[in-house]
Amino acid sequence: MDHLTMSSDNTIEEKYMSRLFHVLKAGIDRARVPISAIFLTISDQNQVWDQAEEEITAFLQTKIRQSDLVFKLEAPFEWCIILTQSGEEEAQAFLQRLFADVRVTLFAQGKLSFSASVAEIGNSDVGLESLIKSGRKSLESALQTGPWQIESINAYKKRKIMKIKVSILEENDIFRNVLQTSLENLQIDSFQLDIKTFQDGYSFLQSDWYVSSHSHIIVMNDILPRKNGLEVLDTIRKLPNNKKFIVFMMTKRNSEEDMIYAYESGVDQYLIKPFNLQLFEAQFRRIFERFWS
C-alpha cells in the first residue's frame, strides 16, 4: 500500500484525508444517506501531558464503528471523526455518549474536557478544504462558549435534487388527469417528479420511457386495454434492473386471493377503488421516506 496506509493506531493523518473523503462522500447522492463530520478539540490544553495526544487518539478509536474513521488534524489536539450513514442527530448522540465516557475516564494525569462541532454532509459537492476550514472556525466558537459545547455547521446539509420518473397507466381520462394533477402538486423536498401518462399498457411498453436507470414509480390500473396491468407488471419484473420500479396497483378487486397474487407478482402498494386521494398521497410520500430518506 502507499502512504495512505493508516498508522499503527488505525488513525489517518489530515494530509491523507482527501482521497478517502472523496470515496466516502461519493455514495451520499446515490444512497440518499448523509455522513457527518465531527471536529473535536480539548477545551483546556494546559491539562494535557506527555503522550496525551496518542492516548486520546487511541481512546477515540475505541468509540467508533468499523465503518467510521478518525482523522488526526494537523493542529495539535484536533481531530475529525467521520460517521458514515449518519446525520447530525446521530452525530450529536455520539458526542453525548463520548463526552459521558470522557467524564468518567481518567487519562493518566487527570480528566479532560472537550469542545466539538458537527457538520452534516448531504451532498457530494462538499470540498474537504472548505469542510475543515468551517469545522475549525466552529470549534473556535465552541471553545469561547466553554467546555462540552457542540456547535452545528449547517452549510452542507442540502441534498442534490433527485429525478424520479412517475408513470400513470389509466384508461379513464378524467381519473388519469386527477392523479397527474395530484402528484404534480405534491411538494417533496430534494426530489423532482418527471410524470408521464399512458392510456394503456401496450403504449407504455412500446415507449422507451421506462428504459433508463432512473428510479421509477408506476401507478397503474389492473384492467387496461391491449395489455393489462398484470401483464405490464410481469414484463418489468423480468427486467435485470427491475428493483428500480415501485408499483402501485389500482383495482376494484378486494379479495384476499387477488391481493396475495398481486403482491407475489411484484406489487408494492395495492389500492382498492374507490380510494381516498389523500390516502394515496400519504402512501406516495411514504415511499420516498422508505427508499430515499
Automatic annotation (TrEMBL):
Q: Where is the Response regulatory domain?
A: 165-288
Q: Which GO biological-process labels does this protein carry? A: phosphorelay signal transduction system
Q: Which domain of life is it from?
A: Bacteria
**One matching Pfam family, short form?**
Response_reg
- Cross-referenced PROSITE patterns, in alphabetical order? RESPONSE_REGULATORY
Q: What SMART domains would the database entry show?
A: REC (SM00448)
- The name on file for this protein is Response regulator
Q: Which organism is it from?
A: Siminovitchia acidinfaciens
Q: What is the lineage of its organism?
A: Bacteria, Bacillati, Bacillota, Bacilli, Bacillales
